Amino acid sequence: MTDHIDRKEGGGFTGDTVEDSEELYYDMVTRLFKAEGFHNQHDALMHAAIGISGEVGELIEAMGFVEDGSGYNKTHIVEELGDIRFYLCAFFNICVDSQEYDVEGLKSDPVNFSPGNNRSILLRLSVESSGVLDNVKKGWVYGKDIDLLKTLNGLYIITYLIDTLAYRLEISTNETLRANIIKLTGKGGRYENGYTDQAAQVRADKVDEK
Q1: What is the pTM of this model?
Q2: Least C-beta-crowded within 10 Å: which of 59, 75, 114, 128?
Q3: In the structure, what pLDDT confidence band is assigned to residue 24 with cuts at 50, 70 and 90?
Q4: CB proximity list for 78: less than 8 A, separation 6 or greater
Q5: pLDDT tens digits, 190-208
Q6: In angstroms, what CA-CA distances link 198 with 114, 122, 152, 154, 190?
């Protein structure tokens, strides 16, 4: 496994590497994800669902629709996988921590399909992320209860698919999480001083790419 943490040479990530003693990833997501200021939990879930869908699209673009793993930009793949994991973590945090959504006893149906080649994985990721977005949209727009089991099943499948893709590309989960932490909270990172709307708009980690 390689360790694509610092992107100073290629542009993008900035800041120092994160030691194992630094803030836990779960705690970082809880601190940075904008869950307050919405009218209800549906809005926060919509934020996470849109985030997942958008990042899946960027992952597909970064992969260049390749089937054999050649010709892609690994640094960008690591970044997009980290972004997807951020929104997945935020989504699960909202569901588990909110009194509005009781997930006790919920069990996802096992993933019983072959992921196929990389192109098949990317296609399935698109389908599943769109499905999650559609499920949440029905609660957000129509004010109806969200089919939480169906939504969580989709999230579990998305997790399984990005894990499979990362394994094939020899990218560890720790690598993507650490890269995401550095991108967001490292020196010169997007939210080095905590989340604000202004920091989200400025995107300090992308300054060199503008």
Answers
A1: 0.75
A2: 114
A3: confident
A4: 4, 171, 175, 176, 179
A5: 777 777 778 778 777 775 6
A6: 43, 32, 31, 32, 10
Q: Closest Cα partner for 152 from 196, 101, 205, 203?
A: 101
- Per the listing, tokens 């790419």 go with 209
Q: What is the pLDDT of residues 110-140, one digit of tens each?
A: 456 677 888 889 999 999 999 999 999 888 8
Residue 38: name the closest of 106, 129, 148, 139 by CA.
139
Q: How far apart are CA 30 and CA 146, in angstroms?
A: 22
Are 103 and 152 in contact by the 8 Å Cβ rule? The answer is: yes
Amino acid found at 3: D
Query: Closest Cα partner for 44 from 90, 101, 88, 89?
Result: 90
Listing DSSP states for 82-117 in one string gives HHHHHHHHHHHHHHHH-TT---TT--PPP--S---S
